[in-house]
Specification:
Elements lengths: L2 H21 L5 H60 L4
Amino acid sequence: MKTDKVILGVLGGAAAGALLGILFAPDKGKKTRKKIMQKGMDYSDDMKDKFDHVLTAATKKYEAILQEGKDLIAEGKEKFTATKDGVENFEV
């Protein structure tokens, strides 16, 4: 399983557990709704942080792969030019 799916599963399970715990708590409705809203906001913030982290990591990997590709192309051009020059200077 991918780490992202595991993280989402754990956060979803924790959210469901917290929601059920709050709903069955012996508090008044107004307090319960405030707790639910606060927990929802907390989980939303956590999800945003996780998403930002994953997005940053993916962007860094993409940029590294792109730079590696550019380096390989430049190296190939250099080798082609060197080979071309060697063939042009070749005397029989």
